[in-house]
Amino acid sequence: MIENNVVKDPRTLVMSEVMTPDKVNFNGNVHGGHLLSLLDRVAYACASRYAARTIVTLSVDQVFFKEPIYVGELVICSACVNYVGNTSLEIGIRVVAENLLKRTSRHTNTCYFTMVALDDNGRPTKIPPLTIENPVQQRRYNEALQRKKARLQLHDVMKKQ
User: Fold this and answer.
1) By the 8 A CB rule, do 112 and 144 touch?
2) Hey, what CATH class is 2-160 in?
3) Helix (H, G, I), strand (E, B) or coil at 85
4) Contact status, residue 120 vs residue 96, Cβ threshold 8 Å
5) Cα–Cα dist 161/156, whole Å
6) Chain segment 79-121, per-residue pLDDT in tens
C-alpha cells in the first residue's frame, strides 16, 4: 500500500501476470522455467523494496510445483520478507493461479528465495533488521531460520566432498 507517496509496508509485494500461449511447455501447460523466472523477479522486487539496495539471488529453496498452471490463468505471486540477516534476506512466495472466466483460484506453488544486498561496489552490505509485529511474522521468521540452518548444513557437507 502506498500512502503519501511512501510504501507503507516494504516487507510485502504482490505481482501478477496473465499466462499467454508463448509460455507453454511441451505438455501444453505453463513452463516451469517461465514460472521460475517470474518468481526470481518477484523475489528481487520484494527484497530490493525492503532493503532499498541492489539485490542478487543467492539460492532458491523448496520450489514445489503442486499443480500445473494453464494458459489464460492469472498468476498472482504474494511475496513477503520472512527473515533478515546482516546482508541477506529470505523472501517467501505463494503462487495462486486464478481462472478469470470461472472466478476460481488454486494455490499452485510455494518457494523461498535467499537474496543478498549489494553496495555500490557490488559487495554484500548491511540491511535494516526485520521488526516482528505479529505471530504470523514470528512463525515465518522461525521457519526461515530452520531453512537457513538446513542450507548451511548442506553447504558444509558439499564443501567436504
Assistant:
1) yes
2) alpha beta
3) coil
4) no
5) 9
6) 999 999 999 999 999 999 999 999 999 999 999 999 999 999 9
